[in-house]
Amino acid sequence: xxxxxxxxxxxxxxxxxxxxxxxxxxxxxxxxxxxxxxxxxxxxxxxxxxxxxxxxxxxxxxxxxxxxxxxxxxxxxxxxxxxxxxxxxxxxxxxxxxxxxxxxxxxxxxxxxxxxxxxxxxxxxxxxxxxxxxxxxxxxxxxxxxxxxxxxxxxxxxxxxxxxxxxxxxxxxxxxxxxxxxxxxxxxxxxxxxxxxxxxxxxxxxxxxxxxxxxxxxxxxxxxxxxxxxxxxxxxxxxxxxxxxxxxxxxxxxxxxxxxxxxxxxxxxxxxxxxxxxxxxxxxxxxxxxxxxxxxxx
Amino acid sequence: xxxxxxxxxxxxxxxxxxxxxxxxxxxxxxxxxxxxxxxxxxxxxxxxxxxxxxxxxxxxxxxxxxxxxxxxxxxxxxxxxxxxxxxxxxxxxxxxxxxxxxxxxxxxxxxxxxxxxxxxxxxxxxxxxxxxxxxxxxxxxxxxxxxxxxxxxxxxxxxxxxxxxxxxxxxxxxxxxxxxxxxxxxxxxxxxxxxxxxxxxxxxxxxxxxxxxxxxxxxxxxxxxxxxxxxxxxxxxxxxxxxxxxxxxxxxxxxxxxxxxxxxxxxxxxxxxxxxxxxxxxxxxxxxxxxxxxxxxxxxxxxxxxxxxxxxxxxxxxxxxxxxxxxxxxxxxxxxxxxxxxxxxxxxxxxxxxxxxxxxxxxxxxxxxxxxxxxxxxxxxxxxxxxxxxxxxx
Lengths: 298, 394
Ligand SMILES: Cc1ncc(C[n+]2csc(CCOP(=O)(O)OP(=O)(O)O)c2C)c(N)n1
Ligand code: SF4
Description:
The complex is a heterodimer of chains A (298) and B (394).
Chain A: H1 27-39, E1 43-47, H2 51-54, E2 57-58, E3 61-62, E4 67-70, H3 76-89, E5 96-101, H4 103-107, H5 111-120, E6 125-130, H6 170-175, E7 181-186, H7 190-202, E8 207-212, H8 216-219, H9 226-235, E9 242-245, E10 248-251, H10 261-265, H11 276-296
Parallel strand pairs in A: 1-4, 1-5, 5-6, 6-8, 7-8
Antiparallel strand pairs in A: 2-3, 7-9, 9-10
Helix pairs in contact in A: 1-7, 3-5
Chain B: E1 5-9, H1 10-21, E2 25-28, H2 35-46, E3 53-56, H3 60-72, E4 77-82, H4 83-88, H5 90-98, E5 104-109, H6 123-126, E6 134-137, H7 141-155, E7 164-169, E8 177-181, H8 185-191, E9 208-209, H9 218-247, E10 255-258, E11 265-269, H10 273-286, E12 291-296, E13 298-300, H11 304-313, E14 316-321, H12 331-340, E15 348-353, H13 363-375, E16 383-385
Parallel strand pairs in B: 2-3, 2-4, 4-5, 5-7, 6-7, 11-12, 11-14, 14-15, 15-16
Antiparallel strand pairs in B: 1-8, 6-13, 10-12
Residues 22-23, 26, 28, 51, 55, 131, 135, 215-218 of chain A line the site of iron/sulfur cluster (SF4).
């Protein structure tokens, strides 16, 4: 499993995504940059409405130096299939088709199209960069916003006490399709992400990568903490690194001990209001999840 | 020319026309009364007579998004829908024209819920009139087939680059069997070569498509889109004339005028009802009434010149349509009157709305409409609903 063509030290200077207008310290741009470095020049990118398309396609300044297109919000999966099919039909060889959708574009409005694309078995890579809310429209709750989060539509007052639902389990939902390859990742663990991208490039058939990408603007965190926070999410057990392939789940990182969740949560404005009882709910949910993971994925 | 006659339904004629146009990818979602189109195309892919990929999409929204993906790399896309499906795809319908993707779509005209109805009226496509698509309404299966080929030729013209919607009246056309003439594939290939476009993602020249604009640029793009649509008028006429020369059938450009020259009253129509009106015109002419029928084929681009020319020649015009813009009048009527506004002479016009949800428009109705037009110099009512089954008491 170690003969991957691009390791961190092999990363080229070539950038395929620069000159964009993302906020300082944006985690999502790291995910897109790394992905394109691995996927290379012969890549078609499809981006629905989200932060990454909003900051990079402002006429006449285009931030993608490889082929890229904005899809309607709900249809990343469908447009990916169309691009791949069209290119195939024209006899174009050796190309990658990758989608960069946010958590909202993946777990909510684009869910149907994602499911359809996996079902078709198309040779596409779907990357969900997860900043845990609708950021482009100003930090509203999405289906992947974690329990307790304060957003502009879950303002953490008396009547709307922050997000009261748990993150939809996209990784396992996608795996349940019997997809060729699915994995979770975090921009806090770039080596792991690169390894999975290399894998994604080789796999024939649909691939789903779900990468946690911190967002200083939406999370209310310091810009210089972007990578650290994404790492701490994993170290505290609130996010995990795993893969699904050939009907099997694999856990890639199994921390012996979790760092205290407070360490991760209280560096972020979106969790500042949480009380002890909320923290207990979060820990309880985490432990329940990890019990299952350790029982069946190890 | 070798003759190749077939007896097919309107839907089958569409599928045969699409096969002749050789799209690379078909992405479509079934809905009555369009379904037979996608079934036949699947059969053609299966039996190898159409070298295309049949993409199973999970909704109409995805059908159009996939078609846009296909078009974004410069390949030829086809889709088909109807009614609720067209509305479900509405976001993508506007998107495709803004992106200037020359996608061709068949729409089976069907009423919109609620009340649910699978039968035909034209409220679905007419509600999409402002979406930036070229819209043609055909009268029979032959015209449907021929328009599939013409549609790609017009849409893909470098000056046009605008998607094209071919509308067939649900059931009346989609499910009615008629004899048609099938053109030879080699001749179609010559008439419709694979298109070349710079508006695509290419490995040699990477591009970003479907970008954002600030208020400083947006309007120029929209004006270009408008100019392309206006410019398509000439292209539509040329392509139709060329088609006539090659295949022996032309459809008179954007409109077709029948016995209108010396007419006292003319009824304007859209789609399959034209045939019935033409029969009534012949019957009334025999009795000495000077009447005619004016078939509007294209609603976008709107045939302003032809309508104005008619308005100069005829003093009384009726517009018969299977559509109502609630709280106002039929959309075809609005468009006709807007073209007539530019005339110095005052034309008396009246809107006859009927056929909603598939209700029959009979020869009796049409005779009554002509008598109404001939017997009145002014119209009290602007809009009259024809063929009402019962009275509605408020
Ligand atoms: C059909 C439709 N509904 C709503 C919107 C408005 N909209 C644009 S981006 C966005 C949020 C995107 O959130 P997400 O997918 O999580 O990506 P992020 O902005 O966080 O990067 C919304 C709601 C839209 N563009 N299209
Ligand atoms: S709001 Fe967040 S995700 Fe969006 S550009 Fe800014 S930092 Fe990146």
